[in-house]
Design goal:
By secondary structure, the protein is of the alpha/beta class. Helix 8 links the parallel strand 4 and strand 5. Bound molecules: 1,6-di-O-phosphono-beta-D-glucopyranose (B16) and magnesium ion (MG).
Length: about 220
């Protein structure tokens, strides 16, 4: 794959902390006495923390001041950090360790493009930080997915043209961001969720080097 690069989304692709995001938001919603369920949680995947809170409040028709929202965002993150405190290499999704090892051996540049402000902490806990030549997280970007900023920044840091980058994502907003960046987009999940993807795999164990090679 000469001159090509792979950009990975973090949550839902390298590991899955969606259930911890869910539990933290559920606790906030219960405290506010507003509805929150797994279906609404699906809409939060790949979405920034702030936007996630807006979606939950909007769904309940609840208006809060910016000060109240800031407190809730801090509280949600404290809970989330408690949940992920025990995260380790065993929490990598199936096939990911082998894929990263193979790509590294083949000298393929790799980046992470995540909406999460906790991305570095999660990568450190998973013990995979050193695989990546660039990490773009929720601190680095101002415009969340589906805006292409996160992936364009990753391509710039890797010094690889966007047209030579392949993005792996589990959220539709992320697939849209990749396509808007002019990149190939591979989705993890049910094909009907990702009409814009160049290809879809049912789970991360299908993300093999041989499979990715066919997109170059
Ligand atoms: P934080 P990704 C995203 O990560 C999650 O999918 C999304 O559910 C979460 O709200 C977002 O990160 C922000 O996370 O609260 O840690 O900043 O999929 O883009 O890697
Ligand atoms: Mg994701």
């Amino acid at each position: 794959m000469p001159g090509k690069a792979i950009i990975f989304d973090l949550d839902g692709v390298l590991t899955d902390t969606a259930r911890y995001h869910y539990l933290a938001w559920k606790s906030i919603a219960d405290e506010l006495n507003i509805p929150f369920d797994k279906e609404l949680n699906e809409q939060l995947k790949g979405v920034s923390r702030q936007k996630s809170l807006d979606i939950i409040l909007q769904n309940a028709g609840l208006h809060l001041s910016n000060e109240q929202k800031t407190k809730l965002l801090e509280q949600k993150n404290r809970l989330y950090l408690q949940f992920i405190a025990k995260l380790g290499p065993n929490d990598l999704l199936p096939g990911i360790e082998q894929l990263l090892t193979t790509l590294k051996k083949q000298n393929i540049p790799m980046a992470v493009g995540s909406a999460s402000k906790n991305a570095r902490r999660v990568l450190d806990s998973l013990q995979i930080t050193l695989f990546f030549d660039a990490i773009v997280d929720g601190h680095a970007v101002s415009r969340p997915k589906p805006h292409p900023e996160v992936f364009l920044m990753a391509a710039r840091m890797l010094n690889i043209p966007p047209g030579h980058c392949i993005v792996v994502e589990d959220a539709r907003a992320g697939i849209l961001a990749a396509k808007r960046a002019g990149m190939k987009a591979i989705a993890v999940g049910p094909p009907e969720h990702f009409p814009e993807a160049d290809a879809t795999v049912p789970g991360t164990r299908w993300l093999t080097y041989d499979f990715l090679k066919t997109f170059l």
